[in-house]
């Protein structure tokens, strides 16, 4: 009997260990090449300052970011998402939704939960976190009109971590999913999320879903964030998931094993409670995966002040994670490396804020001390990098789910050219807030 072409094809399996070695080696080679090609730039800047300052400046705006991008791209090219062993799971799950003044969106969120194609039972618990509006009435309306089994409980102490911990006490199922009250699920989101954790090894205790932007048509700020979620955030999570160390199983949409949650004591009193929780998992040797096909859509900030609050809060959460669990305290070498990357992010954000932005201003007046004509050569590489990321997302995520990438050219151009200029000072502001223990602002 003749074998078909597909049967003759042999898949070359590369162990994670060697994927990491290849990605790390290629990123180091890229950094060495970058230093070689930019030596004249480095020498000119050293003549105006000194070699230590020149290396510090160019390292923060070029060498280190280039090394990280090279590691990311090579890792993604080597990545092959493990096939799902269980395609139609039926285990009962509990969905926790912390709600604070969510009367405008909670009904719609519950409606999308109702439309899930998951064949197992979904127990829904909404924790009303001291809302001052009609959130409870909207939950009741959804329960009656949608014929949905929703349990609403109250938590008077403010803070998302308090609400989730209160809800955790009511969980009786093996798996618990957290969902933000303003986040809408793709109809197969729960199915893919549970399929991934059911198909994984026992030491995988959480799986982060994919969160994308729903309200990108609202204004230019939302359009720019659409590309950040679609390309940057999703790709970074995919790279981290390759090494079983996704650094944030975000509260917006992730699944956890209930037993593991109870073992770590639930969510901590932190502004980045999901970051701290995930790092706590990693420090115990628990793996955290990422599932690209488990998609949820969220509303992003459309006002600059709200965007600043959100992203500075994320930056604070990262510092909280570093404070609670040091990278060198992680059990796995992969986790040590991945969490260790976060140690250099403040350096990069500092460099972009105090070197790149002033250098760009000076370049506009013909003073090419930091930013010069050679910098333009980075744009083709940046475009190639994002093309690779875009191609994967479009082919392996959107196409299988019958979704289409929105035409958003203006947002993409702004994202490529100016997003880092916006995000670095905001992140730096978040680091400073945490270092000086400034007042926490969730919304």
TrEMBL record:
What InterPro entries is this protein classified in?
A: Nucleotide-diphossugar_trans
Q: Which GO terms describe its molecular function?
A: glycosyltransferase activity
Q: Which of UniProt's keywords are assigned here?
A: Coiled coil, Glycosyltransferase, Membrane, Transferase, Transmembrane, Transmembrane helix
Q: Which residues form a coiled coil?
A: 125-152
Q: Give the residue spans that cross the bilayer.
A: 20-39, 51-78, 334-357, 369-390, 411-432
Gene3D superfamilies from the UniProt entry: Spore Coat Polysaccharide Biosynthesis Protein SpsA, Chain A
Instruction: Report the domain of life of the source organism.
Output: Bacteria
> Which Pfam families is this protein grouped with?
Glyco_tranf_2_3
- What family classification does the UniProt entry report for this protein? Belongs to the glycosyltransferase 2 family.
Which PANTHER family does the record associate with it? POLY-BETA-1,6-N-ACETYL-D-GLUCOSAMINE SYNTHASE
Task: Kindly provide the name given to this protein in its UniProt entry.
Answer: Biofilm PGA synthesis N-glycosyltransferase PgaC
Organism, by scientific name, is Clostridium frigidicarnis
């Amino acid at each position: 009997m003749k074998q078909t072409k597909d049967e003759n094809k042999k898949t070359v399996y590369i162990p994670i260990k060697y994927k990491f070695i290849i990605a790390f080696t290629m990123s180091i080679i890229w950094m060495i090449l970058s230093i070689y090609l930019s030596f004249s730039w480095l020498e000119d800047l050293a003549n105006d300052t000194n070699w230590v300052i020149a290396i510090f400046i160019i390292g923060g705006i070029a060498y280190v970011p280039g090394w990280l991008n090279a590691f990311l791209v090579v890792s993604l090219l080597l990545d092959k998402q493990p096939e799902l062993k269980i395609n139609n799971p039926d285990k009962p799950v509990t969905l926790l939704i912390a709600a604070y003044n969510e009367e405008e969106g909670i009904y719609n969120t519950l409606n999308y939960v109702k439309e899930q194609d998951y064949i197992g039972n979904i127990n829904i618990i909404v924790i009303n976190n001291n809302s001052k509006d009609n959130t409870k009435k909207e939950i009741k309306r959804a329960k009656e009109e949608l014929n949905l089994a929703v349990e609403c409980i109250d938590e008077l102490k403010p803070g998302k971590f308090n609400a989730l911990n209160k809800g955790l006490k009511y969980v009786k199922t093996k798996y618990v999913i957290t969902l933000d009250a303003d986040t809408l699920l793709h109809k197969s989101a729960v199915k893919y999320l549970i399929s991934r954790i059911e198909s994984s090894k026992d030491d995988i205790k959480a799986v982060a879903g994919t969160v994308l932007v729903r309200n990108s048509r609202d204004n230019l700020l939302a359009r720019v964030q659409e590309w950040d979620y679609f390309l940057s955030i999703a790709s970074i999570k995919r790279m981290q998931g390759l090494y079983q160390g996704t650094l944030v199983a975000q509260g917006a949409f992730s699944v956890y094993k209930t037993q593991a949650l109870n073992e770590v004591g639930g969510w901590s009193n932190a502004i980045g409670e999901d970051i701290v929780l995930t790092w706590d998992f990693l420090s115990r040797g628990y793996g955290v995966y990422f599932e690209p096909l488990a998609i949820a859509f969220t509303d992003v900030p459309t006002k600059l002040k709200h965007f600043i609050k959100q992203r500075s809060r994320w930056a604070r959460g990262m510092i909280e994670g570093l404070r609670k669990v040091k990278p060198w305290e992680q059990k796995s070498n992969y986790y040590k490396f991945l969490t260790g990357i976060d140690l250099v992010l403040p350096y990069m954000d500092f460099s972009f804020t105090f070197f790149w932005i002033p250098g760009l201003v000076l370049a506009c007046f013909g003073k090419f001390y930091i930013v010069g004509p050679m910098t333009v050569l980075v744009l083709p590489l940046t475009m190639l990098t994002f093309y690779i990321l875009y191609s994967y997302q479009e082919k392996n995520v959107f196409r299988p789910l019958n979704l289409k990438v929105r035409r958003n050219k203006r947002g993409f151009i702004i994202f490529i050219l100016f997003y880092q200029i916006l995000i670095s000072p905001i992140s730096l502001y978040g680091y400073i807030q945490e270092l000086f223990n400034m007042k926490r602002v969730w919304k």
